[in-house]
Amino acid sequence: MKWSLDTILMSDISAADSMIFKIGSKWFLFTNISSSGYVDHQSELHIFYSDDLRSKKWQPIKTGNPVIFESMCARNGGVFWYNGSMYRVNQVHGKSHYGKSFAVNKVHYISESEFSEQRVSMIDANFKRDIISTHHFSANERIAAVDYCRRQRLRSAKES
Question: Can you give the CATH number for the domain in which 87 is found?
Fold first, then answer.
């Protein structure tokens, strides 16, 4: 079991938290890019599409990128499908608090022409004792993954 590079989809771009998935016959790439030139990947959600996963010519969604320009909801934090609907998770950061919580957005429409989503839930870091942050949730039919951060004494962490 070893990873090896297959294809570079885009070069010379600073992106974070990219997610790729297929809907119908199209591949979609959701990614957070800082078009300002600063290393701020919180504020812009960009969407690209392609007919081929390994294409080096991904096209921007026709309505234009970024599709979301808002630091409180643009940064990707996962994706999942439930009851036939797609949900995009976004990270929510607090003042000096990276990954404070996350929001769940129902994707109403996605195509090479347009994108629409609506927030349906907010998940704060209170679902497990002593946690202070959470910022990712992804799932498929068999497994789900969520992250969280908690304060723990170094000595206790080494023992567990």
Answer: 2.115.10.20
